[in-house]
Each structure stands twice: as structure tokens, then as C-alpha cells.
Design a protein that fits this description.
Elements (H helix, E strand, L loop, with lengths): L6 H25 L9 E3 L1 H13 L23 H7 L2 E3 L14 H33 L5
């Protein structure tokens, strides 16, 4: 049994993959804050919810699988978190105001979203680490 067979790990990997993709998009929004006519983008929450539901039910969400370079490596039967993030759709998400040149990026709002994304990612990493430590505790030989 691999970690990919345990639903909580699949969901957490998917969440971390989505948050990584969201952080990239928010960084692109900030980088284009002076580009005329630029509209900020964000992760579509509905597509991400569909990916998490698929991970919980055990369905494959992407055709991407892990490659092994040695027969002793553990093969995964499920999509990786990064493959799940690649499947998340992006949507245009204009901020609260638009400048005269048509740019609708508000730096304060983007930085606040970036901080929120970072906190959610750190929470997912913490849950992943706690889940691994509980799993290690469960398989540990008694008395050691």
C-alpha cells in the first residue's frame, strides 16, 4: 500500500498543488500590475472542488502518472498533486478598481490573497506532516 492509496494524502497533495498554482497566478498578477489592459486571474474554485471530490472518491483526475527509473521504486496509481494543479482552470478575476489604462490589478488585494494562500499552504503541509507522523506511530513496533 502506498501513500497514494490513502485518501487524506491524495486530498492534501491536491490542495497543495492547487495552492502552488494559485501562488504562481497571483505572482503573475502582481508582475503585470503596470501592464495596460491586464485583468488579474485566479483559480476557479469549482474546478478545484471537482478535483478534490474526484480525489476523495478515488477516481483518476489526470492522465499523468509517475515514472520510475528503477523497478524497486514505488509506482503510483493516482495522479500527483502537480498533475491535479495542472487540471485546475483559471478564470479572470478583476479586482475592485480599474485604472485609466484598463489595468484592474490592485496590489493590496493581490498581496492579501498571496498571504492567505501562503497560510493555507502551510496549514496543508502541517496536516500532511501530522498525518505521516500518525501513520509512523501506527506502524511502529510497540515498546520502541
Amino acid at each position: 500500500m502506498s501513500l497514494g492509496d490513502i485518501p487524506v494524502f491524495a486530498v492534501l497533495r491536491g490542495t497543495m498543488g492547487m495552492l502552488t498554482a494559485r501562488q504562481k497566478v497571483l505572482a503573475e498578477n502582481i508582475a503585470n500590475s503596470d501592464t495596460p489592459g491586464f485583468t488579474p486571474r485566479d483559480v476557479d474554485p469549482d474546478s478545484f472542488k471537482n478535483l478534490l471530490d474526484a480525489a476523495r472518491s478515488g477516481k483518476k483526475t489526470a492522465a499523468i502518472t509517475l515514472r520510475t527509473s528503477d523497478p524497486r521504486h514505488i509506482a503510483s496509481s493516482r495522479a500527483t498533486g502537480s498533475a491535479m494543479a495542472a487540471s485546475v482552470k483559471m478564470i479572470k478575476s478583476p479586482d475592485s478598481e480599474t485604472t485609466l489604462n484598463g489595468n484592474s490589478v490592485v496590489l493590496e488585494e493581490q498581496v492579501a490573497e498571496l498571504a492567505d494562500t501562503r497560510m493555507r499552504y502551510e496549514m496543508a503541509v502541517g496536516l500532511y506532516q501530522k498525518s505521516v507522523s500518525l501513520l509512523r506511530l501506527a506502524i511502529k513496533t510497540p515498546g520502541r
